[in-house]
Write a structure and sequence with these properties.
The complex is a heterodimer of chains A (141) and B (702).
Chain A: E1 3-7, H1 11-23, E2 27-31, H2 34-44, E3 52-56, H3 64-73, E4 78-82, H4 88-96, E5 101-103, H5 109-123, H6 131-137
Parallel strand pairs in A: 1-2, 1-3, 3-4, 4-5
Chain B: H1 6-33, H2 37-47, H3 50-63, H4 69-86, H5 93-111, H6 116-135, H7 141-162, H8 180-195, H9 206-227, H10 235-257, H11 263-290, H12 295-312, H13 319-333, H14 359-370, H15 379-398, H16 410-432, H17 438-456, H18 458-463, H19 466-498, H20 510-517, H21 521-524, H22 535-552, H23 555-573, H24 581-602, H25 611-628, H26 649-667, H27 675-700
Helix pairs in contact in B: 1-2, 1-5, 3-4, 3-7, 4-5, 6-7, 6-8, 9-10, 9-12, 10-11, 11-12, 11-19, 12-13, 14-15, 14-17, 15-16, 16-17, 16-19, 17-19, 19-22, 20-22, 22-23, 23-24, 23-25, 23-27, 24-25, 26-27
The chains are: A alpha/beta (141), B mainly alpha (702).
Chain lengths: 141, 702
């Protein structure tokens, strides 16, 4: 079963997202920030990595772009940036940082499941592709 | 000829008299004073005098600004006649008399010419026409050249007419140079000057032309989109551009409408311009957030825009009635677009009970707004809370959290989303930009308090307080549109000033260009082999970033980029510098710092300062140059990044900073270009001095 990690400061927001993903048959993990991600890694085991990671862009502490880029660079699955700002510049900047997928919650649960399916199928279990390579070959959301 | 006001006319006439006395000296007096065989010779001298040619050019230019159309035609016919005759080596007595007679009549016309305020309006009208045509410019170089040629002629006329302004600022109006961007910069500057003292203007008729163009494009695009049922076609950007352009125009007309004397006409324009802005903003929001054509909202935009367009060409005294007639004419032409327009929004379904899961987000927002006042308001906090509320609404709309979507009326939820998204956008302008005034902030705060009032009285939401919500939505969208327009103009102007040569930011926003065009900086944090990056590639990124940070006024990034540029210029000149022991450690950290600052700026957060990294990089440069004997810097003054714990280390850092400041002052002719870095170094020095003072104070403390 594929594992999806959701990194968001807001508890209710990430719980709602995880709930929708679990109903679609995915295993989920949650974290508020990088420290909690590391803590989860320690708890589950050093070799564990999620297949897919959702990161909320707008954060009160730290920075969504930096966090997403770090997770992407350290092979925490394919990273999808969550944003409701609807800004094309955000998508471009994320892309230049190696994050090829952005997604808005307003697109709905069905869209979420379709996106997760599509990314997991595309990645084919090979989550070791680096951001530089992915920028050349990956598709854009 | 209409003489509107005697007082400002006097100053204009003084200018005209000076010009006409020259004309008389050359053309009128000379033939009477000189007799017989010497007359032809004297006439020939006068005829080929360059000053006379210049006077005719001025006459032609100034004649464009007369109120009387027959006088305009007469003066311009005379100038054309003069141009034809001027090519001949000698002309007959009859033709001389024709020209002299025409000049006298020209003088009469010019003496009764427009007073200063009207002249200002006419000049401003011409400038508006020139600037507005920019917005419709597709961005192709060929089109720019054609536009440049047309506008240069207009610019020359404006320049000549500006000589007759009462404040004697004609000397400041230089003719525009060769490029389109310089010309636009000049027009903006001139516009500021001309409008600075203007208190009584009416709406320039030239706006009608631009509005009509937008309407045509909007109709064509919308028809095509409706035909393909909202599919993503190439017409979509055209539609968005037209909506945006209409907002700009409506905003400009709205700004001018306050100067209309007739109250009914003023109200008419204000109502419809606000209607255009509101409906356009709504249509854009719908298209952006829901990817639908929103044909209903576009019809509303059209209706308001057509009312403004027809209103501007009718007589002020009968503006309202004519507009109604115009509406009838419009309906005939654009009947398909008005088949199901609802003028007044249906307020009955305007209310949406907020989902229960929003309680936390609403609570946070209310708390932040409650603690805000005019003097102490944390816009980043408000922005974050609004964003979270928007997230909540989007999740609810998207069917997350087990919320049954079908229980919520789509339109009601959509209105709430648009309201919160627009307030969020306005708040971000307050976070990001220096163009937001105190009045705007006060206005936004008032809107937020109204929102808080509506949210707090949840009972009203359920029992129905539609007008309040709709009015709030209307005001919020208007404010968002206004701030967006101002920010756009502000950036456009700064781009013209700061990006005149390379033109990196033509046609796109600064954020877009930086996000798309930076080649190696964004990926450098993740890349393992930094040594593969060529200095020239990095210098390209740094140059672009420097310009972008100046336009967006992100001073911390600008100062850091200046130092990074110096390092990479040194690397380009001396590739062996990369092998310097301390640079190998410092440069990757500098890259990471810069990337982090860019991430923060991209996420609309305030970037952290990089004073420590700046000192470190300067230290590397100092040591390298000292070792190589480059410049005046001695190895002794090179300092480490961190104080080593010795008592005099801050003093050494201070001394080094002081030397850098002096060096920057000595070596840069254009101090403005390094102003931000100088300030950052001064702040750094101030921090160090304060550390020392605190240390001393601690020692003296009992």
């Amino acid at each position: 079963m594929a594992t999806v990690l959701v990194v968001d400061e807001q508890v209710w927001s990430r719980q709602a997202l995880c709930c929708a993903l679990e109903q679609s048959g995915y295993h989920t993990e949650q974290a508020a920030d990088l420290a909690e991600v590391r803590q989860r890694l320690r708890q589950i085991g050093p070799g564990w990595r999620p297949d897919l990671t959702f990161v909320e862009l707008v954060r009160e502490r730290s920075n969504g772009f930096s966090l997403a880029a770090w997770l992407q660079a350290h092979n925490h699955g394919v990273v999808v940036l969550l944003s409701e700002r609807d800004d094309e510049a955000d998508r471009l900047w994320a892309q230049s940082r190696g994050i090829n997928h952005t997604w808005s919650r307003g697109q709905g649960v069905d869209s979420l499941c379709a996106l997760v399916r599509s990314i997991l199928t595309e990645s084919g279990g090979d989550q070791l592709v680096g951001p530089q390579h992915r920028r050349l070959t990956g598709s854009l959301s | 000829m209409t003489v509107l006001d005697q007082a400002p006319l006097q100053s204009l006439q003084r200018c005209l008299d000076a010009v006409l006395s020259d004309m008389q000296a050359h053309c009128l007096l000379a033939p009477h004073h000189i007799r017989n065989d010497r007359q032809d010779e004297a006439w020939a001298d006068v005829w080929h005098d360059k000053r006379l040619a210049a006077l005719f050019v001025q006459l032609e230019a100034a004649s464009r600004f007369l109120l009387n159309k027959s006088a305009i035609r007469r003066c311009q016919a005379l100038c054309r006649y003069w141009r034809v005759q001027h090519k001949k080596t000698s002309i007959g007595l009859h033709r001389q008399r024709v020209i002299l007679k025409g000049l006298l009549r020209g003088r009469e016309s010019m003496q009764a010419v427009t007073p200063d305020r009207v002249l200002r309006h006419l000049i401003a009208d011409q400038i508006s026409a020139a600037v507005d045509s920019l917005a419709t410019l597709p961005g192709h170089s060929r089109a720019e050249q054609a536009w440049l040629r047309q506008t240069l002629a207009r610019g020359t006329a404006i320049n000549h007419a500006a000589r007759f302004l009462a404040d004697g600022s004609a000397g400041d109006f230089c003719p525009p140079p060769e490029t389109l961007r310089e010309l636009l910069g000049w027009l903006f500057a001139l516009n500021r000057r001309v409008r600075s003292n203007d208190t009584d203007m009416f709406i320039p008729a030239t706006f009608t032309r631009e509005i009509n163009r937008c309407i045509e494009r909007l109709c064509v695009s919308n028809t095509a989109l409706v035909a393909v049922r909202g599919a993503h076609t190439g017409l979509s950007p055209v539609l968005n551009q037209s909506l945006w352009q209409l907002q700009l125009l409506a905003s400009a007309v709205l700004a001018l409408s306050s100067m209309i004397q007739h109250r009914s006409v003023r109200c008419f324009f204000a109502q419809h311009c606000q209607g255009v802005i509101w409906a356009s903003a709504r249509a854009l929001f719908l298209r952006r957030h829901f990817a639908c054509a929103g044909s209903g909202s576009i019809r509303q935009v059209l209706r308001h825009a057509l009312a403004v367009s027809f209103g501007t060409i009718c007589e002020p005294a009968s503006g309202t009635k004519r507009s109604d007639q115009g509406g009838g004419m419009v309906t005939d032409v654009y009947a398909p677009f008005f088949s199901d327009v609802s003028w007044v929004p249906d307020v009955a379904d305007a209310l949406a009970p907020l989902p229960a899961s929003d309680t936390e987000a609403v609570g946070e927002l209310l708390a932040v707004i409650a603690h805000s006042n005019g003097a102490q308001i944390s816009w980043p906090d408000v922005s974050l809370r609004l964003y979270r509320l928007l997230v909540c609404l989007r999740m609810f709309g998207g069917g997350f959290g087990g919320a049954p979507l079908n229980l919520i009326q789509g339109h009601e939820l959509e209105r709430w989303q648009v309201l919160i998204a627009s307030l969020h956008a306005s708040t971000n302008h307050c976070v990001q930009l220096s163009v937001v005034s105190i009045e705007d902030q006060t206005c936004l705060l008032a809107l937020l308090r109204r929102l808080a009032g509506i949210l707090e009285t949840g009972a009203d939401l359920k029992t129905g307080d539609g007008p309040n919500v709709m009015a709030l939505l209307h005001n919020s969208l208007t404010l968002t549109a206004r701030l967006g327009i101002r920010a756009q103009r502000h950036w456009q102007q700064l781009t013209l000033e700061l990006d005149a040569v390379q033109q990196d930011f033509v046609g796109y926003s600064v954020q877009h260009v930086l996000a798309a065009e930076l080649r190696c900086l964004p990926g450098i944090g993740a890349a393992s082999a930094n040594s593969q990056i060529l200095p020239q590639d990095m210098l390209h990124d740094l140059r672009l970033l420097l310009k972008g940070s100046r336009i967006l006024n992100v001073q911390r990034i600008e100062s850091f980029v200046l130092v990074m540029t110096e390092v990479y210029q040194e690397l380009l000149a001396h590739p062996e510098f990369v092998n310097a022991a301390d640079l190998g450690n410092a440069l990757p950290r500098a890259h990471r710092s810069l990337c982090q600052m860019l991430d923060q700026a991209a996420a609309w957060q305030t970037p952290g300062n990089a004073r420590r990294m700046i000192n470190t990089l300067y230290g590397c440069l100092d040591r390298w140059r000292g070792a190589k004997g480059i410049g005046e810097v001695q190895t002794a003054v090179a300092v480490s990044e961190r104080p080593a714990g010795t008592e005099n280390e801050p003093w050494r850092l201070c001394l080094a900073t002081n030397r850098r400041l002096r060096k920057l002052l000595r070596h840069h002719d254009d101090l403005d270009s390094v102003r931000v870095l100088l300030l950052e170094l001064l702040r750094s020095q101030e921090d160090l001095i304060r550390q020392k003072v605190d240390y001393s104070a601690a020692l003296d403390a009992p």
